[in-house]
Amino acid sequence: MKALILLFCTCYASCFFAQNINEDFSGTYKGTMLIYNKTLPTDSVDVVFYIRLQDDSSWQQRMIFNSEKYGEIIKDYLLIRDSRGNYRIDEQNGIVMPLSHFGNTFYSNYILQEHLYTYSLSTTDFGLHFEISVTDLRINSESVLEESEEFVVKANVPHIIQKVDLYPIKRR
Predict the structure, then answer these.
(1) Pick the residue with more confidence: 171 or 108?
(2) Domains recognised in the chain with CATH numbers
């Protein structure tokens, strides 16, 4: 479970608000992350998210996970927009990951230890919605299009889903 919480820390910070960089999203947000796992019972952890506009192209972020089992876990990040409008998240430990921004949502995918992590973070009417799925790339099924053996579909299904709705508790 602690590994799942740390995974969430990394993945959550890899995406943020899909809005105009000129807006100040400084504030505090709170929610309960639900963790669904095909082999373990559903679990949850309380999350507090702080965001502060640092300058016109970066935000300082802090994620605090309050777990009854593992105590408080704190992660600090920097969200950056470059001069071409591309976003990236700096975990301030050597890991920097690019983000895609479409509409009101940031998206990113990455592979870590033969697992594909797919996640998104969206602004909503109530605040923020974050979701991540984890898929083991070693497990898959294959199907072949009947008319063409050259068209092969390889499919993998997620085995972990984490999601949280974050509600503002303090703005600026």
Answers:
(1) 108
(2) 2-171 (2.40.128.20)
